[in-house]
């Protein structure tokens, strides 16, 4: 019985190691990826002009952006308790580029973030046109369009790094103050190589077969 327990413990230990490798792919928040800075108090929407630098980001494009509170004067984004980034600013055509973050050339990464189409709040009617885009340096541009207003979306963007430092750029693509391009909780993580997952499974296989044999013997004994 003790021998069986030791074998099961070994299988569990190896399994934990494989799970640990998989969990390393969890997204880590980029610097100020939750847009909690600059802090908004009495002013519910701080306009940031092109060239403005905030922790983790620089404003780019032809128009500015807004760091907004979710709770003032009305709960703009249900479920979001603090601040978020409004890419549409006061007139559209604005965006933000991240501070360069460390990557490994040839490694695949995934950007995760939340989005919200707040057009029902202002101008007060649903906007279903082009919302915003995201691009990692050296990679393809992806544009989201027709996001249903009033629903929080968990979106992803996958890219392969071509250098030791990478930037990501979000841009409004509505062209006006549509409020369709609200984003928050931006994170990035490496995608595990398929060979790593296969190798982990191969490590488990002999232990699994051994355990099954021992269990069968103990049942017939």
Structure characterization notes:
With 221 residues, this protein is α+β, with helices and mostly antiparallel strands. The protein is 22% helix and 33% strand. Strands 1, 2, 5, 6, 9, 12 and 15 form a seven-stranded antiparallel sheet that branches. The radius of gyration is 23 Å and the shape is globular. The N and C termini lie close together (12 Å).
Please give a handful of descriptors for the protein shown.
single chain; 221 residues; alpha+beta; seven-stranded antiparallel sheet; disordered N terminus
In short:
The protein is α+β, with helices and mostly antiparallel strands and 221 residues long.
**How many distinct beta strands?**
15
Measured between the Cα atoms of the first and last residue, the distance is 12 Å
Main sheet summary? 7 strands, antiparallel
Determine the mean pLDDT.
81
Question: What's the order of the H and E elements?
Answer: HEEEEEEEEEEEEEEEH
- How does the overall form come out from the CA principal axes? globular
Total DSSP helices = 2
Percent in helix: 10-25%
Alpha-carbon Rg, integer: 23 Å
- Strand percentage: 25-35%
Low-confidence stretches: 2-24, 196-205
Structural class: alpha+beta
